[in-house]
Amino acid sequence: MSKFNDDQLKEFSRLVARYPEGKQKSALLPVLHLAQDSFGGWLSAETMDYVAELLQISPIEVYEVATFYSMYNLKPIGKHLFEVCQTGPCMINGSDDIIDYIGTKLGIKPGETTTDGMFSLKTVECLGACGYAPMMQLGKHYREHLTKEKVDAIIDECRKNAAANN
Amino acid sequence: MSEQPLFKVTIDNITVEVPAGTTILNAARKIGGDVAPPAMCYYSKLEGSGGKCRTCLVEVSKGSEKDPRPMPKLVASCRTTVMDGMEVKNITSDRVIDARNGVVEFLLINHPLDCPVCDQAGECHLQDLSYEHGKAGTRYEFQRRTFKKHDLGDKIQLHMTRCILCYRCVFTADQLTGKREHGILDRGDHAEIATYIEKNLDNEFIGNVIDVCPVGALTDKTFRFKNRVWFLKPVDAHRDCKTCSGKVTLWNRGDEVYRVTARKDQWGEVEDWICNTCRFDKKQTSDWVIEGPRLIDRHSVIAQGHYAGTVGTHKPTETFEAVHAGRQPKLLMDIHSISEVNQPNITLSQLDRPAHSTDFNHNKD
Amino acid sequence: MGVKLLLEKAHVPGIRFFETYRKEGGYQAVEKALKQMDPAAIVEEVKKSGLRGRGGAGFPAGMKWSFIAKPEGVPRHLVCNADESEPGTFKDRYLMEFLPHLLIEGLIISSFALGSNDTYIYIRGEYAWIVDILEQAIDEAKANGFLGKNILGTGFDCNIYVQRGAGAYICGEETALIESLEGKRGNPRIKPPFPAIEGLWKRPTVVNNVETLAAVVPIINMGGDEYAKIGVGRSTGTKLISACGNINKPGVYEIDMTISVEEFIYSDEYCGGIANGKRLKACIPGGSSVPILPANLLLKTAKGETRLMNYESLSDGGFATGSMMGSGGFIVLDEDQCIVKNTYTLARFYRHESCGQCSPCREGTGWMEKILKNIDTGKGKMSDIDLLWDIQRKIEGNTICPLGDAAAWPVAAAIRHFRDEFEWHVNHPEDAQKRNYGLAHYADPIHVPA
Fold this sequence. Notes:
B: Ubiquitin-like (UB roll), four-stranded antiparallel beta sheet, 9 helices, C: alpha/beta, Ubiquitin-like (UB roll), de novo design (two linked rop proteins), 3 domains, globular
């Protein structure tokens, strides 16, 4: 089972130190983010049990939270996760076409991962970039004013990065 | 104890005095009858419960003596405390009835309506509620939400499809047991009660989640499909138990104990929590000291065929003659003297045809 | 050009960093507040300013502050609500991304006014990169003596922490936000008790929107009375509007609340008119949960008066013929947009974001989404429209938190104003898949009864 390394433990301590004595449960959301980033982009039951142990809370309290928030992935996902917004303002600027285009280009439907494990496509609800629609989240950042050409470029960029890192 | 001020509150035109801090719902329960709003999630013995199902919504037509303004929205009576001089409308408010009908419809759209095969039928609060407020048909034309059945250990079954997410079982596990292992997962209309990874709920008091469940989502596996509750005779009984009070209700048929539950009051709430041993393992009449028949609301289907005094092993000794010191009961009227139909000296079965009035005339002669 | 109080310096290069921000006059309000004023005086200035909560509800901020309980020996907390998630709203993001120090400055003053030594910014999880920007700004402020122990030698200690959410619209509701900050599911609490009495960790807590807290800076700098002179009526000061949809210049604009809706949409200073030379069909003026208005009712009230971009004018006519200022998420729809489809995506959004705690919202939002999907894809029945109306009516006002209302209002308003478009979808299911209903009479002047 994977555990936090020293740097991650240091970050963990920094997060917990923000709250009063005995209120360490408050750090649960940021710690789950840290765990997800540290252990392959998703939260396994073992990871959640580990977080529970670190925060001295019961595992069910972690499961309850992890399943509530949409940003925690409870199943393995591709190396690059395309989270495309489909709510009103993005929809009227053509997000449906972008979602279709990405799906066709990668050969997957929303909620699926390519067989090589490189890309996952997910439709999400409003991310607060309505003025720069259509948009998607890729990792930490937003990609906005999406067009088919831009999507092509993003996919190429991801492939190139993956190749460079191998 | 310091003297708590008494507040006057009027609910459906009936005034009661209750201590400050009492909720509208509990004040209404003090009045009783139809004035008490239905409650699917509130449970007086579980801290933090209530406010979720919205069936107990009432209209506050006057806030208090000091501030008589009405409250703009309907409020959850289980979580709103009374103020002095408050006026509340429950069944006298069309708005409340309309909203409550709506809530009942919402609770039912995804409910399986599998009452004919559900162990809870007959003592299900949702059944009672829909009888009062539901419509005969449904306006919901979509596939109902379903979940897989889960075993929470070998004694409790979770049938999530029937759940109305009242959170009572979560509060029970939190407040009665040392460590809660089940909870609410996911959110919105996908939210479910679960353990996330398949787990046995293992705690001496966890069986109480069955009793607090207002619907058939949590059922007793030792009783599953064994009988319908209205065929059983509930009797109060007790035993010397080290873990709990040992005060239970046995559900018998003949001399056989079909199931054991905690005793429930008129609002369907458990009087004393009982332990798993009493609930699941003590299924012999000889395990128990029988106290007598459990009083069941006569409107309940369970009351059918449930005659106090002939239940179980208990036979009453207080006959009419004993109570009246040997005096025979005085009949107000002797049916035979005024009815010709039930003449005791005619044996209708001996006639080879339907009886005629002449048959009676003949005998009269 | 209107008055700019918040975004005036947004385009100064390097304003994101302490040095530039300070050089441009930043942190003067902190000095003034902490050295020359006491907490009660700050609350008084905010009350005088008439500042109303910029998150959506528009509750007077000074009044909210004065409700905070002050039990002996119990710490109090200020929490900044940066969980901006209402579709159409992206103004707080802009403020935090480009002017982080303005927010930090507002937070220091407000923390001092409320007596909060540990202040939290709860930011939506998706704004991941903004967390870094804010944390850097906090570090800079700390290094320069504006945060931490004994700020500016006044004896006031204050730390600000950034807490990241993880994807839940409901956490923008203040009690759900507090629950989330405590490491729990974002289930709104049942009120009372209100956060001012029992909030974060059962301590007295005030939750304010990013823009509200940033506005405290100009209020201290210029004084509450001066601030109140800007704007009109009870809509004082300036308001950030995030404009999006089918307009030429989507973006975040600061307005004083005296300009008309027409000017806001068509002038080059703001939205620059409808994109691609199309005509205006409808607009959701205050974030997706407020009632949608057809063009005729948007530009003029039912009484025939020019509609202005402020709290009172936007809600003129109630829900029958008006809407709301809300969060300032201004969504413009042109003649090619389908109201049914738009309403469907919003219903889907609210279904997705319902926490599932109370039955009307949990069950009702999903039901509305399914019916709207049917109508949108040509499988609807005429009775579905009345059914939708009845469902939204039974959700509204009957839920624990305002998400129920937020889900009900868009559906109600769409049916109220665009019922013929719904009917057209039902009657012409095949056409509805190929083309949009178009403009119909929505842009025509409204008939005003004498």
